[in-house]
Amino acid sequence: MSETTALPACVVNSAAYDRSGQRQDISLDAISDVLAVDDGSFVWVGLYEPENALLDKLQEEFGLHDLAIEDAQNAHQRPKLEPYGNSLFIAAHTAQRQHDHVCFGETHIFMGPRFLITVRHGASLSYAGVRQRLEREPELLARGPTAALHAVLDFIVDNYQPIVSDFEALLDALEQDVFSESYRRGTTRRLYELRKDLAKMRMAVAPMQDILSQLLRTPTFAIPDIIRPYFRDVHDHAVRVGDSIDTLREMVTAAMNVNLSLVTVAQGEIVKKLAGWAGLLAAPTLITSWYGMNFVHMPELAGRYSYWVLIGIVALVCVSLYGYLRKIDWL
User: Fold this and answer.
1) How many CA atoms are closer than 13 Å to the CA of 296, on its beta-carbon side?
2) At 81, which helix (H) or strand (E)?
3) How far is CA 1 from the centre of its chain?
4) CA geometry: angle at 55 spanning 49 and 57, to 5°?
5) Neighbour tally for 274: CB within 10 Å
6) 196 and 254 together in one domain
7) Domain-located, residue 233
8) How far apart are CA 14 and CA 58, in angstroms?
9) Of 23, 78, 216, 226, whose CB neighbour count within 10 A is largest?
10) Which residue has the higher pLDDT, 292 or 289?
């Protein structure tokens, strides 16, 4: 194998692993030389937002399909799995929590019988930790690029779960605000933002389930039987995360409906109270307005105690009306 030379900044790792899982760093120019020798080794290259010229270089070294390279150059791909001859191209969406917001990125993966290339775009945690963990267990790397592919996909799916758990905690807090005594306008906005984030998460997780299912069925690149249970386990995790997201979406929708219903009920209570007090004011206003008219012949107009009788009648009407409105819970 060739000696390692200085790698471009966007190349996070470039290494070859022999049949015993031992690592040796290599340059990009040495990749084709390593692959030319059928000694059971494989090459793993990790990139972060590479330039098109570098992808063209890798296409030359690995013999990648033009359409796969074209997809990798465009960082806005839908999650998918595409077979190209004896290699596979996988586009997966990643999620990462940054400053109380969920940001999404993409990982494009090329896999062949003796190579694995991971290309990260946008919000995505580094796979350096995945690589280091596998290097501590060389017997896994000795199984070839499918073991490394499983580790990468497992890492992507595992990163979904903490975000969903944060969504669950946020929903619990928002439910407390929904049932609080005072209406908070920000609660509705936060519920809407949560539902939008859940929809984006659903768009990332649901296709991952399809990708893993296709990997288990694809005839293009058969996964060894010893690795297959690990892929099924990742698929089960993705299904579990997808189910949690669907449940949360339904709960958020219900919380939004309950929130709006409670606001409507509260507004109705306010209108009832205003109507009750308006009724109390209308009774004395009606009586006194009659006696404000310029008519000579009116009941009790000339009586000695007419003023006090009128006050008593107004007070009796108001007290009776107040008692009735309290009884029907309008005041």
Assistant:
1) 0
2) strand 80-84
3) 44
4) 140
5) 11
6) yes
7) yes
8) 11
9) 23
10) 289
Q: How many CB atoms lie under 10 A from the CB of residue 116? A: 23
Q: Please report where in the chains the tokens 């507004």 appear, as a residue.
A: 267
> What are 118's two structure tokens?
């991971």
CA 101 to chain centroid? 9
39 by Cβ neighbours in 10 Å (0-12 / 13-18 / 19+) ranks as exposed
User: Whole domain around residue 229: which residue ranges?
Assistant: 11-262
Residue 231 has, within 13 A of its CA and on its CB side, a CA count of: 23
Phi, psi of 11 (to 5 degrees): -90, 105
For residue 6, being part of any structural domain is answered with no
113 in the same domain as 88: yes
| 199 plus 292 within the same structural domain | no
Alpha carbons 153 and 237: distance in angstroms, whole number: 11
Q: Please report, in angstroms and rounded to a whole number, the separation of the first and last CA atoms in the chain.
A: 88
In this structure, the number of other CB atoms found within 10 A of the CB of residue 287 comes to: 16
Residue whose pair of structure tokens reads 């399809």 in the numeric block: 210
Residue 224 sits in the same domain as residue 199: yes
pLDDT digits (tens, 9 = 90+) for 188-214: 888 888 888 899 899 889 999 999 988
What is the band of 142 on the pLDDT scale with cuts at 50, 70, 90?
Answer: confident
Q: Are residues 256 and 285 in the same domain?
A: no
Whether 26 contacts 4, CB under 8 Å: yes
Query: What are the tokens at 39?
Result: 């000694």
- Taking Cα atoms as reference points, which of 105, 80, 102 lies closest to residue 93? 105
- Supply the Cα-derived Rg of the chain in whole angstroms: 36
DSSP letter for 295, please: -
Number of domains in the chain: 2
pTM across the whole model:
0.77
Residue 222 CB partners (closer than 8 Å, separation 6+): none
The enclosing domain of 44 has a CATH number of 3.30.460.20
More confident site: 75 or 45: 45
Distance CA 145, CA 112 (A): 8
Structure-token pair, residue 13: 């790792």
Q: Are 103 and 123 in contact (CB under 8 A)?
A: yes
